[in-house]
Amino acid sequence: MQSKRTSSYISFFLYIAGVFLLAAGLALNTRAELGVAPVLTIPFCIASIWGGSFSLLTFLTYFIFVLLQFVLKRGKASLMDLLQFPFSFILSHLLGFFCKVFSIPCDMLWQKLLLLAAGIILTGAGVALITYTNFIPNPPDGLAQTLGQVLHKNTGFGKNAVDIGCVLLACIICLAEQRDLVGIGLGTIISMLFVGRVVCLFTRLLQRLPAPSVRSGNL
Q1: Are 34 and 142 in contact (CB under 8 A)?
Q2: Can you tell me the mean pLDDT for 1-19?
Q3: Relative to the CA of 52, which of 1, 17, 63, 97 has its CA 20 to 30 Å away?
Q4: How far apart are the first and last CA of the chain?
Q5: Residue 20 vs residues 14, 25, 58, 65: alpha-carbon distances, Å
Q6: What's the chain's Rg over C-alpha atoms?
Q7: pTM > 0.85
Q8: pLDDT value for 81
Q9: Where are the alpha helices (H) located in 51-185, listed in sequence order?
Q10: Closest to 146 measured CA to CA, from 102, 154, 53, 6
Q11: How many CB atoms lie within 10 A of CB 70?
């Protein structure tokens, strides 16, 4: 009994660490100014063109991701699905906090690439920890998993679909407003290519640990 309780505490700590790492990684990716992460292209584009809080728009975007999961699952929601709403709220505020903390002036390309690399590593580590604990999923990853299940594909396919869909919609918004592609650049493409690989690397390392005891349950 004591062992299970300790395992639960460790899993919860790993999960919280994952959330902080994810928010920090996304913030570094944004501060690199080479193009934001694919899932952030829509809120960043809207905030840049029409104004508004980037963190609030990120929350609204993630909120929509969760609603899309409910639609795809035809209303069959688990407790972990519902908890993605408060997760979105917390993550968006952490993102805003880290964006302020990481106000690092970077004028040289190598500095921007260094920030981007750090952002990708932290993002991948955060996603791996969140996935490993099997607790409340990150809404974009939850949507990716749901898409994969509905289309009878793997989660990787769903992840690519979510990333590409976000980037395409952001491009449409920019072109409709006759603007340059705001927030979409080299960093966006590099993130699409390498975040998944970093997640796989950290997942392999985490698989050496005892299986986490946090499990999702249905309503």
Answers
A1: no
A2: 80
A3: 17
A4: 25
A5: 10, 8, 16, 20
A6: 17
A7: yes
A8: 86
A9: 54-72, 79-82, 84-101, 109-133, 139-150, 155-176
A10: 154
A11: 15
